[in-house]
Design brief:
Keywords: Carbohydrate metabolism, Isomerase. The chain has 237 residues and is of the alpha/beta class. Helix content is 43%, strand content 14%.
Length: 237
Protein backbone atom coordinates (compact mmCIF):
# COMPACT_ATOMS: atom_id res chain seq x y z
CA UNK A 1 0.00 0.00 0.00
CA UNK A 2 1.32 3.49 -0.81
CA UNK A 3 2.14 6.07 1.84
CA UNK A 4 -0.73 8.31 0.76
CA UNK A 5 -3.21 5.44 1.20
CA UNK A 6 -1.90 4.81 4.72
CA UNK A 7 -1.84 8.47 5.70
CA UNK A 8 -5.45 9.07 6.81
CA UNK A 9 -5.33 5.89 8.93
CA UNK A 10 -2.15 7.06 10.68
CA UNK A 11 -3.97 10.21 11.79
CA UNK A 12 -7.06 8.40 13.04
CA UNK A 13 -7.87 9.27 16.68
CA UNK A 14 -5.08 11.86 16.97
CA UNK A 15 -4.48 15.57 17.41
CA UNK A 16 -3.38 17.62 14.40
CA UNK A 17 -2.22 21.17 15.11
CA UNK A 18 -2.72 24.13 12.79
CA UNK A 19 0.22 26.57 12.84
CA UNK A 20 -0.82 29.78 11.13
CA UNK A 21 -0.22 33.50 11.61
CA UNK A 22 -1.96 36.35 9.82
CA UNK A 23 0.23 38.49 7.56
CA UNK A 24 1.79 41.38 9.41
CA UNK A 25 1.53 39.77 12.87
CA UNK A 26 4.62 38.98 14.98
CA UNK A 27 4.71 35.23 14.25
CA UNK A 28 4.16 35.54 10.49
CA UNK A 29 7.53 34.22 9.34
CA UNK A 30 8.45 30.73 8.12
CA UNK A 31 11.17 30.34 10.79
CA UNK A 32 8.71 31.20 13.58
CA UNK A 33 5.99 28.88 12.29
CA UNK A 34 8.48 26.06 11.74
CA UNK A 35 9.68 26.47 15.35
CA UNK A 36 6.09 26.37 16.62
CA UNK A 37 5.48 23.27 14.47
CA UNK A 38 8.53 21.53 15.95
CA UNK A 39 7.36 22.46 19.47
CA UNK A 40 3.83 21.09 18.98
CA UNK A 41 5.19 17.89 17.43
CA UNK A 42 7.27 17.46 20.60
CA UNK A 43 4.01 17.88 22.47
CA UNK A 44 2.29 15.09 20.52
CA UNK A 45 0.84 16.63 17.35
CA UNK A 46 0.50 13.88 14.72
CA UNK A 47 0.54 16.30 11.75
CA UNK A 48 0.79 20.02 11.06
CA UNK A 49 -1.64 22.15 9.09
CA UNK A 50 -0.05 25.33 7.79
CA UNK A 51 -0.74 28.12 5.32
CA UNK A 52 1.44 29.71 2.63
CA UNK A 53 4.03 28.19 0.33
CA UNK A 54 7.10 29.40 2.26
CA UNK A 55 5.58 28.16 5.52
CA UNK A 56 4.75 24.75 4.04
CA UNK A 57 8.37 24.45 2.85
CA UNK A 58 9.83 25.54 6.18
CA UNK A 59 7.57 23.26 8.23
CA UNK A 60 8.21 20.34 5.86
CA UNK A 61 11.96 20.77 6.37
CA UNK A 62 11.60 20.94 10.15
CA UNK A 63 9.24 18.10 11.15
CA UNK A 64 8.91 14.44 10.19
CA UNK A 65 5.11 14.26 10.54
CA UNK A 66 2.65 14.77 7.64
CA UNK A 67 1.99 18.36 6.53
CA UNK A 68 -1.45 19.62 5.52
CA UNK A 69 -0.86 22.65 3.30
CA UNK A 70 -3.09 25.41 2.03
CA UNK A 71 -2.85 28.96 0.77
CA UNK A 72 -5.17 31.78 1.72
CA UNK A 73 -5.67 34.15 -1.16
CA UNK A 74 -8.00 37.14 -1.15
CA UNK A 75 -9.39 37.46 -4.68
CA UNK A 76 -11.74 40.09 -6.06
CA UNK A 77 -13.63 37.56 -8.19
CA UNK A 78 -14.60 35.04 -5.47
CA UNK A 79 -15.34 34.62 -1.77
CA UNK A 80 -13.30 31.40 -1.81
CA UNK A 81 -9.97 32.04 -0.09
CA UNK A 82 -8.63 28.65 1.02
CA UNK A 83 -6.69 27.24 -1.94
CA UNK A 84 -9.09 28.69 -4.52
CA UNK A 85 -7.46 27.46 -7.74
CA UNK A 86 -5.87 24.42 -9.34
CA UNK A 87 -2.60 26.38 -9.71
CA UNK A 88 -2.62 27.07 -5.96
CA UNK A 89 -3.08 23.35 -5.24
CA UNK A 90 -0.23 22.37 -7.55
CA UNK A 91 2.08 24.96 -5.93
CA UNK A 92 1.30 23.62 -2.44
CA UNK A 93 2.10 20.09 -3.60
CA UNK A 94 5.43 21.30 -4.99
CA UNK A 95 6.15 22.99 -1.65
CA UNK A 96 5.98 19.56 -0.02
CA UNK A 97 2.49 19.13 1.47
CA UNK A 98 1.22 15.57 1.91
CA UNK A 99 -2.39 16.70 2.17
CA UNK A 100 -3.85 19.77 0.46
CA UNK A 101 -6.72 21.57 2.14
CA UNK A 102 -9.09 23.50 -0.12
CA UNK A 103 -12.47 25.23 0.17
CA UNK A 104 -15.16 22.61 -0.42
CA UNK A 105 -18.17 24.87 0.07
CA UNK A 106 -21.02 25.25 -2.40
CA UNK A 107 -20.26 28.93 -3.10
CA UNK A 108 -19.39 30.14 -6.63
CA UNK A 109 -15.77 29.17 -7.23
CA UNK A 110 -12.92 29.40 -9.75
CA UNK A 111 -12.59 25.59 -10.03
CA UNK A 112 -15.22 23.00 -9.12
CA UNK A 113 -14.71 20.64 -6.19
CA UNK A 114 -14.43 17.78 -8.71
CA UNK A 115 -11.67 19.64 -10.60
CA UNK A 116 -9.82 20.47 -7.38
CA UNK A 117 -9.93 16.86 -6.13
CA UNK A 118 -8.68 15.58 -9.52
CA UNK A 119 -5.82 18.11 -9.67
CA UNK A 120 -4.74 17.29 -6.11
CA UNK A 121 -4.81 13.54 -6.81
CA UNK A 122 -2.72 14.14 -9.93
CA UNK A 123 -0.13 15.99 -7.80
CA UNK A 124 0.27 12.89 -5.61
CA UNK A 125 -1.16 14.52 -2.47
CA UNK A 126 -4.37 13.76 -0.59
CA UNK A 127 -7.27 16.20 -0.65
CA UNK A 128 -9.00 17.70 2.38
CA UNK A 129 -12.24 19.52 1.58
CA UNK A 130 -13.07 22.29 4.06
CA UNK A 131 -16.86 22.26 4.28
CA UNK A 132 -19.61 23.99 6.28
CA UNK A 133 -22.69 21.76 5.75
CA UNK A 134 -23.64 18.10 5.39
CA UNK A 135 -24.59 18.68 1.73
CA UNK A 136 -21.13 20.10 1.00
CA UNK A 137 -19.53 17.14 2.77
CA UNK A 138 -21.60 14.72 0.72
CA UNK A 139 -20.67 16.50 -2.53
CA UNK A 140 -16.98 16.44 -1.59
CA UNK A 141 -17.10 12.70 -0.83
CA UNK A 142 -18.88 12.08 -4.13
CA UNK A 143 -16.17 14.11 -5.87
CA UNK A 144 -13.59 11.76 -4.35
CA UNK A 145 -12.12 13.97 -1.60
CA UNK A 146 -9.92 11.93 0.74
CA UNK A 147 -10.97 13.90 3.83
CA UNK A 148 -13.71 16.36 4.72
CA UNK A 149 -13.17 18.83 7.53
CA UNK A 150 -15.68 21.05 9.36
CA UNK A 151 -13.28 24.01 8.96
CA UNK A 152 -15.73 26.34 7.21
CA UNK A 153 -18.69 25.84 9.60
CA UNK A 154 -19.53 29.31 10.89
CA UNK A 155 -17.54 31.00 8.13
CA UNK A 156 -20.14 30.87 5.34
CA UNK A 157 -23.12 33.24 5.26
CA UNK A 158 -25.50 30.27 5.64
CA UNK A 159 -23.95 28.61 8.73
CA UNK A 160 -24.16 29.86 12.34
CA UNK A 161 -21.02 31.44 13.79
CA UNK A 162 -21.08 29.99 17.31
CA UNK A 163 -18.39 30.57 19.94
CA UNK A 164 -17.34 26.92 20.05
CA UNK A 165 -17.10 24.00 17.61
CA UNK A 166 -20.10 23.13 15.44
CA UNK A 167 -21.16 19.99 17.29
CA UNK A 168 -24.52 20.09 15.48
CA UNK A 169 -22.79 19.66 12.12
CA UNK A 170 -20.62 16.85 13.52
CA UNK A 171 -23.69 15.05 14.86
CA UNK A 172 -25.40 15.43 11.47
CA UNK A 173 -22.31 14.16 9.60
CA UNK A 174 -22.20 11.14 11.91
CA UNK A 175 -25.90 10.43 11.35
CA UNK A 176 -25.33 10.69 7.57
CA UNK A 177 -22.48 8.16 7.83
CA UNK A 178 -19.91 10.65 6.53
CA UNK A 179 -16.38 10.39 7.96
CA UNK A 180 -15.17 13.81 9.04
CA UNK A 181 -12.33 15.74 10.57
CA UNK A 182 -13.32 18.13 13.39
CA UNK A 183 -11.82 21.60 12.96
CA UNK A 184 -12.73 25.12 13.98
CA UNK A 185 -13.04 26.83 17.37
CA UNK A 186 -11.96 23.83 19.45
CA UNK A 187 -10.62 25.60 22.54
CA UNK A 188 -10.64 22.98 25.30
CA UNK A 189 -9.63 19.36 25.78
CA UNK A 190 -13.25 18.54 26.69
CA UNK A 191 -14.41 19.96 23.35
CA UNK A 192 -11.78 17.90 21.52
CA UNK A 193 -12.94 14.73 23.28
CA UNK A 194 -16.57 15.54 22.45
CA UNK A 195 -15.60 15.75 18.75
CA UNK A 196 -14.30 12.17 18.99
CA UNK A 197 -17.46 11.09 20.83
CA UNK A 198 -19.42 12.46 17.85
CA UNK A 199 -17.31 10.38 15.45
CA UNK A 200 -14.46 12.63 14.32
CA UNK A 201 -11.62 10.77 12.58
CA UNK A 202 -9.15 13.27 14.04
CA UNK A 203 -9.24 16.82 15.38
CA UNK A 204 -7.40 19.91 14.14
CA UNK A 205 -6.74 22.56 16.79
CA UNK A 206 -5.22 25.89 15.80
CA UNK A 207 -5.83 29.11 17.73
CA UNK A 208 -6.09 27.47 21.17
CA UNK A 209 -2.51 26.19 20.81
CA UNK A 210 -0.67 28.37 18.30
CA UNK A 211 -2.13 31.88 18.34
CA UNK A 212 -0.74 33.51 21.51
CA UNK A 213 -2.40 36.85 20.79
CA UNK A 214 -5.87 35.25 20.80
CA UNK A 215 -5.07 33.06 23.81
CA UNK A 216 -3.84 36.10 25.74
CA UNK A 217 -6.90 38.13 24.73
CA UNK A 218 -9.16 35.47 26.22
CA UNK A 219 -7.35 35.60 29.57
CA UNK A 220 -7.09 39.41 29.53
CA UNK A 221 -10.79 39.92 28.69
CA UNK A 222 -11.92 37.43 31.27
CA UNK A 223 -9.76 39.05 33.97
CA UNK A 224 -10.84 42.56 32.93
CA UNK A 225 -14.51 41.44 33.10
CA UNK A 226 -14.03 40.10 36.63
CA UNK A 227 -12.20 43.24 37.67
CA UNK A 228 -15.12 45.36 36.42
CA UNK A 229 -17.65 43.19 38.31
CA UNK A 230 -15.68 42.83 41.56
CA UNK A 231 -12.77 45.27 41.70
CA UNK A 232 -9.80 43.85 43.63
CA UNK A 233 -8.25 46.14 46.18
CA UNK A 234 -4.56 46.89 45.87
CA UNK A 235 -2.31 45.32 48.48
CA UNK A 236 -2.10 47.89 51.28
CA UNK A 237 1.29 49.58 51.50
C1 LIG B 1 -12.00 29.45 8.65
C2 LIG B 1 -10.52 29.44 8.36
O1 LIG B 1 -10.07 30.20 7.54
N1 LIG B 1 -9.78 28.53 9.02
C3 LIG B 1 -8.35 28.44 8.82
C4 LIG B 1 -8.03 27.22 8.09
O2 LIG B 1 -6.96 26.81 7.83
C5 LIG B 1 -7.51 28.72 10.05
O3 LIG B 1 -7.51 30.12 10.19
C6 LIG B 1 -7.94 28.11 11.40
O4 LIG B 1 -7.02 28.57 12.37
C7 LIG B 1 -7.94 26.57 11.42
O5 LIG B 1 -9.03 26.12 10.67
C8 LIG B 1 -8.06 25.98 12.83
O6 LIG B 1 -9.17 26.50 13.48
P1 LIG B 1 -9.07 27.18 14.93
O7 LIG B 1 -7.98 28.21 14.87
O8 LIG B 1 -10.41 27.78 15.20
O9 LIG B 1 -8.74 26.07 15.91
Amino acid sequence: MTLTKLLPDSLYGTLVVSCQADAGTPLAAPTHLAAIAAAVVEGGASAIRTEGLANVEAVRACVAVPVIGLVKTARADTEIYITPSIEDARAIARAGADIIAFDGTARPRPASVVEMVAAIAESGALSMADISTVEEARAAVTAGADLVSTTMAGYTSYTPADEGPDFGLMRALGRAGISFVAEGRIWTTDEALQCFDLGASFVVVGSAITRPTLITQRFARSIAGRQAATPQRKVPS
